[in-house]
Amino acid sequence: MSSASLDWTDLDRQAVDVVRALAMDAVEKAGSGHPGTAMSLAPAAYLLFQRVLRHDPSDPKWVGRDRFVLSAGHSSLTLYIQLYLSGYGLTLDDLKGLRQWGSLTPGHPEYGHTVGVETTTGPLGQGLGNAVGMAMAARRERGLFDPDAAAGSSPFDHMIWVIASEGDIEEGISHEVSSIAGHQKLGNLCVIFDSNQISIEDDTQIALSEDIAKRYEAYGWQVLEVDWRSDGEYKEDVHALYEALEAARAETERPTFIKLRTIIAWPAPNKQNTGKAHGSALGADEVAATKRIMGMDPEKSFQVPDEVLAHTRKVVERGRALRAEWEEGYRAWREANAERVELFDRMRHRRLPDGWDKALPSFDAGTSIATRKASNEVLNALAPVLPELWGGSADLAESNNTTMKGEPSFIPDEYQTKEFPGNKYGRTLHFGIREHGMGAILNGIALHDGTRPYGGTFLVFSDYMRPSVRLAALMKLPVTYVWTHDSIGLGEDGPTHQPVEHLWALRAIPGLDVVRPADANETAAAWKTVLEHNDRPAGLALTRQNVPTYAGTADPDKVAKGGYVLEDASDGQPQVVLIGTGSEVQLAVEAREILEAEGITARVVSMPCVEWFRDQDAAYRQTVLPPAVRARVAVEAGIGLGWREFVGDEGEILSLEHFGASAPYKTIFEQFGLTAERVVAAAKATLAKTGADKGETTGN
């Protein structure tokens, strides 16, 4: 599309200056913030929202909308001001409340808090990863709902637009997700890279010298450059940027990277092109001087002329027209695709199909199976009944057991392999050795529209994806992590691969469910409970080694409570309660048998998920852990950090307060004292502490 098709009027130019002034005023009033990028990006953001982005401010959740991701979340005003001008419901008072308690304009955009914000951004690079996930989800959903439509003709065709900064590009996660995006040929993704060469430490030359455009060419992206700083004169050539954006929309086989050269804080006379303009208020004198340059009254703040606001709000009319046009194709699709419509409607509201859980496998007591393998059997069983469920692994599929049998890989045709045949609409994801990128992509998939993603790696490498996991919890996204090799039980790989502190470190994240099932049936029940939750992420911590299957684990309703009585005291009146998780439940069961044989009544509590247990009412928790029974033992092959909450001051914690070792797993458990005999000794110790162990008379 030629630049002549862009009608850029004096009112548009005036509106852009209003954006700059609002950015300065909001940060000045707040006393902190990031005005510079919002000022220099004012023309780009305004162009996107007013002329390029397919959106309808009167229907912010319109299915057919393009998505906009502000990966440079520190420049939140870049988004907030456009939401205000476009008519998403933000007011001038909201802009005046920037970064204040209870406002709709927090320091960084927050998903679910402000209408029009598609994801929570701030930790740099995460938004870029989310956008890659959104682009992947859009393609997967098109494959589910409208796979045969010609390119650009489906109601499920839309673009994902991103604004990213040097900070985003410097973060290592940007390499991981950008590499995947190029490999996946995500033609529905466009990144506008704001190349202003300024960060908090001023000129980025101090730390950044690579050719970023060539880097993205190497990834396989379409790379376009728009330089507003050429010829020694700064010229905001919106026509050139518009041509680049339209070229991005026209390119369907590659993601597009637009390198936009700007001057931060333009046109501030003294602080433009400085690190000070990046992360602090410009100061009253500089704000006034800048307003004079723009022909605005320096004595007035938050000034928006009526004619400017009326002009920008016309985007609502444009959006409604686009939506009305889209609705015609959407109605035709609904009339012709009854079965797919049913799936679409169900997925949009994250409803599970009736009777879906009948497909879950059950496992016979007395058998022995690794929980990672049981998880794979669950995935295979659910594949036919839950098409919304899809995922893969960070190059550990064979170890994580995340591949659904017979399902095609999500991959351009030319990159499928003998081991993993597939197509662009496939189901099995291959993240490569990119855990951090995988986490951000999973969040983007969950944010997009209704599919349920999962991603696997070893539990120890959850450290590599922790920032994304934290953001999933913050946004309440239903992402599932399949973290296998959950303890020293993985054996010979040694301490680098054996998680010790990870379970409690992950349990420390508010809103994340950490589930460590004891056996195969608990694993199936864990998947059931996780999929029934739409408002939180969950991590499954699964064993490499086989563990016994128990008769008492087959009730998914009990497992869903997070902690329950697996085996009770022989007389129903326990003297001691033994709490175990995962592979250590078997140690508690064996210890109970020894204690009962010695006349000490013992109860075994399996606690696969402390978060679910905490969610139960006090009455239920007391039936599992009776307050009168103060003799308690918790056993888990990791640090004991949080178990005091459940065993009390007089209880014992059998844990691992050091790193592991390289040896067969049974040897490691024995050498580190994680045995049934040690559980028995701990039980007797806590009985002694509580005064329940009276000893024996030895005579005079």
Which key terms come to mind for this protein?
elongated, five-stranded parallel beta sheet, six-stranded parallel beta sheet, 700 residues, alpha/beta, 22 strands
Can you walk through the features of this model?
This protein is of the alpha/beta class and 700 residues long. Helix content is 41%, strand content 13%. The chain contains 28 helices and 22 strands. The strands form six sheets. A six-stranded parallel sheet has the order 12-9-13-14-16-15, sandwiched between helices. Strands 1-2-3-7-6 form a five-stranded parallel sheet, sandwiched between helices. β13, α19 and β14 form a beta-alpha-beta unit. α1 packs across α4, α1 packs across α13 and α6 runs parallel beside α8. The chain is elongated, with a radius of gyration of 29 Å.
Summed up, the helix count is: 28
- Strand tally is 22
Please state the overall shape, judged from the principal axes of the Cα atoms.
elongated
- Percentage of residues in strands: 5-15%
Helix content: 40-55%
Low-pLDDT stretches are none
What integer value in Å does the Rg equal?
29 Å
Task: Please state how the strands of the largest beta sheet are arranged side by side.
Answer: 12-9-13-14-16-15
Q: Look at the structure and give the mean pLDDT.
A: 97
SS class = alpha/beta
Distance between the amino and carboxyl termini: 105 Å
Major beta-sheet overview: 6 strands, parallel
Would you spell out the secondary-structure blueprint of this structure?
Elements: H1 10-30, H2 35-40, H3 42-52, E1 67-70, H4 76-86, H5 92-96, H6 126-145, E2 160-165, H7 166-170, H8 172-184, E3 189-195, E4 198-199, E5 202-203, H9 212-219, E6 222-227, H10 238-250, E7 256-261, H11 276-279, H12 284-293, H13 306-312, H14 315-336, H15 338-348, E8 368-369, H16 371-382, E9 389-393, H17 397-400, E10 409-410, E11 422-423, E12 428-430, H18 435-449, E13 452-458, H19 462-475, E14 480-484, H20 502-507, E15 513-515, H21 520-532, E16 538-542, E17 547-548, H22 556-559, E18 564-567, E19 576-580, H23 585-597, E20 602-606, H24 610-615, H25 618-624, E21 632-635, H26 644-647, E22 652-654, H27 665-671, H28 676-689
Parallel strand pairs: 1-2, 2-3, 3-7, 6-7, 9-12, 9-13, 10-11, 13-14, 14-16, 15-16, 19-20, 19-21, 21-22
Antiparallel strand pairs: 4-5, 8-17, 18-20
Helix pairs in contact: 1-4, 1-12, 1-13, 3-4, 3-10, 6-8, 6-18, 8-18, 16-21, 18-19, 23-28
